[in-house]
Write a structure and sequence with these properties.
single chain; 154 residues; alpha+beta; 5-stranded antiparallel sheet; 3-stranded mixed sheet; 3 helices; 8 strands; 21% helix; elongated
């Protein structure tokens, strides 16, 4: 029987040859889904290469499983720190623990903390009307429900 730890070890060994990183491994019954990513996107040839590598390493043992190797998927929530790093400077959507959504530009990532620059309406002192101001909001990856890259077609 193949374990998640065995798969992770083999995938990480294959990943040493390039700029890819492991996002997730899901095992559900007889189905294995492996997600990889890199800053410049994932090439189908590399997914096929990883799949062949796993087949070579695991042999007949892998025959009992349906193996799917692919990219993390654009517009999907980030799962690992490297995805945050890759999207510094991009517009993201943060779903906060209280269920509120916030959009802004991902400014920095340090460890499990990240900062998003947002625009918020505030009433300046001595004024009657609110104006949009830039506000940096700090979050912990462990405390938000999700963060994802916002596709912008403007």
């Amino acid at each position: 029987m193949i374990t998640k730890e065995t798969l992770k070890s083999l995938v990480e060994e294959w990943l040493k040859q390039g700029d890819y990183f492991l996002v997730d491994i899901e095992m559900d019954g007889d189905r294995i889904v492996i997600e990889i990513d890199q800053a410049d996107g994932v090439w189908i040839e590399d997914c096929a290469s990883l799949s062949r590598y796993l087949q070579e390493q695991l042999g007949d043992e892998l025959g009992d499983y349906e193996l799917e190797v692919g990219s993390a998927g654009i517009g999907q929530p980030f799962k690992v720190e490297q995805q945050y790093q890759n999207h510094i400077g991009d517009e993201v959507e943060v779903l906060q623990a209280d269920g509120k959504k916030l959009t802004g530009v991902l400014k920095t990532v340090e460890g499990r903390q990240f900062v998003v620059a947002t625009k918020e309406k505030q009433v300046p002192e001595g004024k009657k009307r609110p104006v949009l101001v830039d506000v940096d909001r700090q979050f912990s990856m462990d405390e938000v429900k999700s963060t994802k890259y916002l596709l912008n077609f403007k």
